[in-house]
Amino acid sequence: MALEGGMKCVKFLVFFFNFLFWLCGIALIVIGVLVQLELNKTLIMSSPSASGAPIVIIVVGVIIFFVSFFGCCGASKENYCMVTTFAVLLTCIFLVEIAAAIAGYIFKDKVRTALQDGLEDAVGKYSSDPLVKDTMDKLQKKYSCCGASNYTDWFNVEPFKGNNSVPKSCCWANATMATCNINPTADTINVHGCAGSIEAWLKKHIVIVAAVALGIAFFELLGIVFACCLMKGIRSGYEVM
């Protein structure tokens, strides 16, 4: 009886952890979509190194979402094959997440390069592409920045070349002068580049992503352990109610 009661407990724990996986899957999907939208606003999504990370997060979230449902069915039906498949898939996801974390650390500098290149390209197209102009203006206002590296980037492109001016979106939010973008100084505009400001935003919010990833990895390990225990119980022929 003690063993049967223990197996009941394991079965309910498998249900519990699958519910947590389901929530984690939704969390990853939401985080991935938000990062995708935010990076899309920075005009660098044409770069594979920049767009890869949020896509991986979304894909892993979707997989976890469905695998958790699969695990619940296996535990409910006490099906050895389904529970085994669930444990194997969960182990694969865990290994993929470790590989993604290592790859993210190795290629983190390429994100900075892609960000810089994308913003420099946007500065060059500012006067010829209305969509780029609108997006760049919103970006500079949101991040309180100007240009790619700094505000002097605008001195090399039309229509600002030769007249020592920058877009009005570079002006401080509380600027009252209508000509704040003419002969700009640190007192009238944001002089820092958008590449540095966006990179700082990403570093600040990556802590949240890392915390969620660590939490998911911890629960995945526990889920794998409990799934293996349930597999052993089912295979041994014990009744799990």
UniProtKB/TrEMBL annotation:
> Where's it mainly located?
membrane
**Membrane topology designation:** Multi-pass membrane protein
Cell location: Membrane
State whether keyword Lipid metabolism applies: no
Q: Answer yes or no on keyword S-adenosyl-L-methionine.
A: no
| Pfam families linked | Tetraspanin (PF00335)
List the Gene Ontology MF annotations in alphabetical order: ATP binding
Q: What Gene Ontology terms describe where this protein resides (cellular component)?
A: plasma membrane
What sections of the protein cross the membrane? 12-35, 55-74, 86-107, 206-231
Family, similarity comment? Belongs to the tetraspanin (TM4SF) family.
Which protein are we looking at? Tetraspanin
